[in-house]
User: What shape does this take?
Amino acid sequence: MKYYYVLSTFVALLIFGLKSSAQDRIILNSGDTLTCIISKESKSYIHFYQYFNGVSSKGKVEKAKVREWTYKTAANPLEVENLKTFNAEETNTEPKQVQVQEKTKPTPDYGKIRASLSGGSGYLLGKTSEAEKNLQAMGISNSLSEEYYKNFKWGAQVKASLYFYLAKDYWLGAMYNGFYSNAEITSSMQMDETNMYYGALGERYFVNFAGLSLYSSSRVGKAQKLIINSSYSIGPAFYRDEAEMYNEQVLIQGTTLGSNLTLGLEYFIQPKLSISFDTGLFLGKVSKISLKTSEGSNEVELDKENYENLSRLDLSFGIVYYW
Assistant: This one.
């Protein structure tokens, strides 16, 4: 048996030396390629042999780390038979026929362009205690003031992005993020000793952001269908607040530099199509605003403690397509 093992090993080594140009290939998710002869496959591993400078070595690699593997061993019956014997002696398992046709293990492929569309809820992070006091000073009750700003801080947001593949796990592109919120109450205000005004008080609040964005992702799991991703975007943010106070229309506008950070998950439902779940943080403060009323308009420089805080938390669900 020892002589037969040595002979089998010698024959296998000879095959590795003479057929190096027709060896199998294992391509890893990192892009590295292993040139070898694949001896067998298990549920979780690919076993292989390599031959360098007259020395044979064996190894294995997890299938979760492999993008694809290819059999290119020549279909010489003697070579195939010797490889089968070599594997059987080495592993004490039933010999496995080496496939001579090319075989590729399919996994979801990124492509070179990534487009996404998502939407969900947003929650404004700015403090509203001073604004509530202002409403109360106008004769609005405490409960109505609190209800007004509780509704105002919650809104709807939509997000769209387009990225182009750079290298490895990084993409560069652009992101748009729009946010809308509104609140309204109906109340009365004592104008003087004899007159009282009864009507609506409300506002419609918009923030539109568009910027340059860097996106990164990492596949996880054996099937490589799940992605953990993140992005950072920076660009101009446009603020608009349409307020109505007892038939008086006021338009407030401002522009600032904003940034958007996201952290999310993607799951591939098809090789090029995935569904996404993202959490996001938008940051930005407006220091200068434009006020427009029926009587005219003027620019106002805000004190630092009175900057209009546009910051918010976002929660989004969406769809992603690669090509």
Confidence is low (pLDDT under 50) at residues 1-7, 13-21, 74-108. The two ends are 56 Å apart (CA to CA).
